[in-house]
């Protein structure tokens, strides 16, 4: 038996691991022979749009955390630090592509056009996800770790059977984008999804935001090799991208999604990033990780580097940044007011979406419950 | 009125209470939405709460250091002439702690409607509603909340006859609820035991049950009825004839101090250590004049320019050198596995007195550090601890500890081992004392070292050897040259 002794660490070393990066943490654009061609159509306008997306995603997140701390939400999973991975990959999508998110993809939801206020209902406990997945081709948040990779693969196999790949029609050919984290790679579901996608050559892109922590478990407890290398064992390509570099994430996602649309099968993108906040608002990350690690990642901030780049290249002035800031504040206000005015659902709504046509026994139960609830004085007023 | 109150939210999925650690605002301060107003500490973490209101702080309703149930109003903010942002509900908490008079626009759901039912608000504590702590998600409740919504008077609505059965069963279900709704858990006891309690004048709900399934037994009632000789309060009661209620300086004779987090942890750790590890303490008095001189000389050196080199750092280094010669003092007792774990690395704990209490952060891989790096690490550790910023990770995984009691001017003590470790060394004050040196009595720098060790792991011979090794290094640092690497 031989073991590849060169590869024994999860993070990989500079020597044996290539990280696609187009924008350094200092905001300097580094040329790349191949990936430059994938984003050579990006204009200064679009850079400004990306910056706006990043800022909005961050503001959605910080407002939601504040709302949770004010008792308005039961829970929130913060995306802080992962804005570039989400925005870069989501902006590579076409309208007909379909997205399967985890519960942390607020930036992707934003880019897909979902009203961020709609994300809050789930975390406030007043609905189970209120946006229509068909409207923006953005599936509901999946809480079960890794389960959505199987949904995505199945959906991609459906796309395949619809013949919506490899036709050469840019309006028709579709890809599926499945998000998950480093912790999910230890789940059976994800490995099964890899197998199914590989064997069926399904048009799915597995986008792993490796934020280094599966709640309190560090990456080295999940893997002995860099995660992107796992793809090779399943028979499709994998690569690692600087997950805090929005341009690099855009470039590699564009390429992988196009591969899928062209019928060339799945691929794995490992976006190497960092979860700057706790796992959720219920978690205290200082119990298991060091501030020094956080500090080192703070220097790689995904939003600041775009700002530095734009300033350096004179793509934006202070008025632009102030304008985005003001827009972000408006969005925050929208989130606050919408969140606080969300009505509690009526208890009988649990019957609403079980069957298309409610069977008589269930209808009887529904009516019985309604009468029971009616027997309380106060419930009537609440509705 | 435009004064809005902010109720303590459940910030961690199923928490029932939190301690107000510190206020970041005071009455009269202007606050904006999302300004940080208070730091709280829950069973899960310390978090800062942002203000849901813009306005001027009217009053702080809970003092620092107090632990209050979720739902308790903690701050009142005067939101001025704007339409008052009405009270913030605490979803997921539903403890019914609605404050008065502002249920106008708030999406408070059931809470707002129940004022009449439970207007006690804040004093509906979660005591019977405790959840067991879990890492993620709501912990399981250890008992049911026992609160139901008010039922309409029976005659109010007449259901269609064919629905009466269902209606009745529904009513039956809700009618049972009030039985446990008086906020008190139902006591399990057999009727004769209840009668005994009644006869003896004992409130059976106050009796600690020891029977199967939490039932109160006859013995429990008898034990509760037996005259209690010495409760803590009675033990300290002043002798008859002393009528004053005051102690010195006109202050109350006794004061009860709530046991806060660090103090509580210290207490638990100390009790655990003292009663599981059989402690032995040995002492040695040692002439450290040469070490003191060495420290003075090193301080002159360029590489020590920015370092506060203290005798403590020399002691730390001496321990690191001495440990490999007696590795048992650096071992760990694994009760579950029935094994002794020999640890071939040193995570050196330094006990630090902080405003919040005693903490023992440790220097990781101390055996690999030079004297200079050790000195830096000790200083960093101490200043971080004093600021109360020691991350929990720094307090875990220690292998052996030092307690520098000398800084308090005392000669020595019998330290209690940090739980999970095998030994702790107390470093006493260094004093100029008459000492026999080269046949003459000279003033020398003398200190006392005390080593407490866990006798399960460390025998007297080993403990003595380690202590004398450390002492000999401090007595003459040159001794280190004579030692092998292991």
From TrEMBL, chain A:
Annotated ranges, domain Dehydrogenase E1 component: 54-346
Cofactor field: thiamine diphosphate
GO biological process, one term: branched-chain amino acid catabolic process
A Pfam family assignment: E1_dh
UniProt keyword annotation of Oxidoreductase present: yes
Keyword Oxidoreductase: yes
Keyword annotations from UniProtKB, A to Z: Oxidoreductase, Pyruvate, Thiamine pyrophosphate
Domain of life per record: Bacteria
One annotated GO molecular function: magnesium ion binding
Alphabetical list of PANTHER family matching this protein: 2-OXOISOVALERATE DEHYDROGENASE SUBUNIT ALPHA, MITOCHONDRIAL
Annotated protein name in UniProt: Pyruvate dehydrogenase (Acetyl-transferring) E1 component subunit alpha
Gene: pdhA
Automatic annotation (TrEMBL), chain B:
Keyword Hydrolase: no
Domain annotation Lipoyl-binding: ranges: 3-78
E.C. numbers: 2.3.1.-
Keyword Transferase annotated: yes
Cross-referenced PROSITE patterns: BIOTINYL_LIPOYL, LIPOYL, PSBD
GO cellular component: cytoplasm
Region named Disordered: 82-186, 229-252
GO molecular function: acetyltransferase activity; lipoic acid binding
Pfam (any one): Biotin_lipoyl
Domain named Peripheral subunit-binding (PSBD): residues: 188-225
InterPro entries, per the entry: 2-oxoA_DH_lipoyl-BS, 2-oxoacid_DH_actylTfrase, 2-oxoacid_DH_E2_comp, Biotin_lipoyl, CAT-like_dom_sf, E3-bd_dom_sf, PSBD, Single_hybrid_motif
Keyword terms: Acyltransferase, Lipoyl, Transferase
Compositionally biased region (Low complexity): 137-146, 163-180
Cofactors required: (R)-lipoate
Family, as annotated: Belongs to the 2-oxoacid dehydrogenase family.
Stated name of the protein: Dihydrolipoamide acetyltransferase component of pyruvate dehydrogenase complex
């Amino acid at each position: 038996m031989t073991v590849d002794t060169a590869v024994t660490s999860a993070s990989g070393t500079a020597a044996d691991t290539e990280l696609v990066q187009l924008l350094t943490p200092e905001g300097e654009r580094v040329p790349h022979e191949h990936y430059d061609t994938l984003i050579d159509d990006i204009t200064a306008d679009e850079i400004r749009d990306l910056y706006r997306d990043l800022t909005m995603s961050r503001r959605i997140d910080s407002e939601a955390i504040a709302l949770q701390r004010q008792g308005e939400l039961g829970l929130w999973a913060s995306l802080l630090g992962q804005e570039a991975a989400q925005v870069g990959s989501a902006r590579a999508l076409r309208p007909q592509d379909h997205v399967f998110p985890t519960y942390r993809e607020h930036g992707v939801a934003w880019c897909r056009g979902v009203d961020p206020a709609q994300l809050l209902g789930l975390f406030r406990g007043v609905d189970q996800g209120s946006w229509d997945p068909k409207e923006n081709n953005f599936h509901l948040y999946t809480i079960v770790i890794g389960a959505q990779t199987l949904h995505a693969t199945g959906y991609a196999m459906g796309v395949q059977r619809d013949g919506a790949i490899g036709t050469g029609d840019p309006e028709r050919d579709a890809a599926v984008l499945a998000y998950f984290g480093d912790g999910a790679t230890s789940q059976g579901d994800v490995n099964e999804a890899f197998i199914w996608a590989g064997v069926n050559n399904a048009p799915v892109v597995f986008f792993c935001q490796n934020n280094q922590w599966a709640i309190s478990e560090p990456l080295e407890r999940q893997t002995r090799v860099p995660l992107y290398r796992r793809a090779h064992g399943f028979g499709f390509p994998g690569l690692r991208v600087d997950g805090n570099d929005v341009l690099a994430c855009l470039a590699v996602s564009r390429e992988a999604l196009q591969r899928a649309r062209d019928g060339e099968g799945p691929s794995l993108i490992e976006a190497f990033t960092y979860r700057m906040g706790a796992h959720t608002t219920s978690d205290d990350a200082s119990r298991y990780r060091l501030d020094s690690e956080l500090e080192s990642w703070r220097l790689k901030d995904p939003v600041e580097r775009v700002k530095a780049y734009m300033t350096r290249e004179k793509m934006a002035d202070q008025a632009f940044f102030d304008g985005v800031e003001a827009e972000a504040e408006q969005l925050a206000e929208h989130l606050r007011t919408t969140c606080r005015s969300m009505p509690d659902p009526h208890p009988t709504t649990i019957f609403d979406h079980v069957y298309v046509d409610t069977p008589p026994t269930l209808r009887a139960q529904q009516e019985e419950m309604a009468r029971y609830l009616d027997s309380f004085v106060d419930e009537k007023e609440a509705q | 009125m435009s004064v809005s109150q902010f109720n303590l939210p459940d910030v961690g999925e199923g928490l029932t209470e939190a301690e107000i650690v510190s206020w970041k605002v005071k009455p009269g301060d202007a606050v904006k939405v999302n300004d940080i107003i208070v730091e709280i500490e829950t069973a899960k973490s310390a978090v800062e709460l942002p203000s849901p209101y813009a306005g001027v702080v009217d009053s702080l309703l809970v003092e620092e250091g107090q632990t209050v149930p979720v739902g308790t109003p903690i701050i009142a903010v005067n939101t001025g002439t704007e339409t008052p942002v009405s009270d913030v509900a605490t979803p997921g908490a539903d403890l019914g702690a609605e404050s008065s008079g502002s249920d106008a626009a708030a999406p408070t759901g059931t809470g707002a409607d129940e004022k009449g039912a439970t207007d006690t608000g804040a004093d509906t504590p979660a005591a019977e509603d405790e959840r067991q702590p879990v890492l993620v998600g709501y912990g399981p409740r250890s008992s049911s909340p026992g609160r139901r919504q008010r039922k309409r008077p029976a005659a109010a609505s007449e259901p269609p006859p064919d629905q009466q059965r269902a209606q009745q069963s529904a009513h039956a279900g809700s009618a049972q609820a009030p039985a446990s709704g008086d906020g008190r858990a139902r006591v399990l006891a057999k009727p004769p035991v209840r009668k005994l309690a009644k006869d003896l004048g004992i409130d059976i709900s106050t009796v600690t049950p020891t029977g199967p399934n939490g039932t109160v037994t006859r013995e429990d009632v008898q034990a509760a009825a037996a005259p209690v000789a010495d409760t803590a309060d009675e033990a300290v009661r002043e002798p008859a004839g002393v009528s004053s209620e005051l102690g010195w300086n006109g202050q109350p004779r006794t004061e009860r101090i709530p046991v806060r987090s660090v103090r509580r942890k210290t207490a638990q750790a100390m009790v655990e250590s003292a009663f599981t590890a059989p402690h032995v303490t040995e002492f040695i008095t040692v002439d450290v004049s040469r070490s003191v001189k060495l420290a003075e000389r090193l301080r002159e050196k360029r590489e020590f320019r920015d370092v506060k080199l203290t005798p403590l750092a020399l002691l730390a280094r001496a321990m690191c050198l001495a440990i490999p010669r007696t590795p048992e003092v650096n071992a760990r007792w694994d009760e579950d596995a029935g094994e002794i774990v020999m640890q071939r690395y040193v995570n050196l704990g330094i006990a630090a007195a902080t405003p919040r209490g005693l903490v023992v952060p440790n220097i990781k891989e101390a055996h690999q550090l030079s004297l200079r790096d050790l000195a830096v690490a000790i200083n960093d550790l101490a200043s971080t601890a004093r600021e109360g910023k020691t991350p929990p990770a720094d307090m875990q995984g220690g292998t052996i500890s030092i307690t520098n009691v000398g800084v308090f001017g005392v000669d020595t003590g019998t330290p209690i081992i940090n739980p999970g470790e095998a030994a702790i060394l107390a470093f006493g004050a260094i004093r100029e004392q008459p000492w026999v040196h080269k046949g003459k009595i000279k003033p020398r720098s003398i200190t006392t070292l005390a080593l407490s060790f866990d006798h399960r792991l460390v025998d007297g011979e080993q403990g003595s050897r380690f202590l004398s090794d450390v002492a000999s290094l401090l007595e003459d640092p040159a001794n280190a040259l004579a030692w092998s690497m292991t």
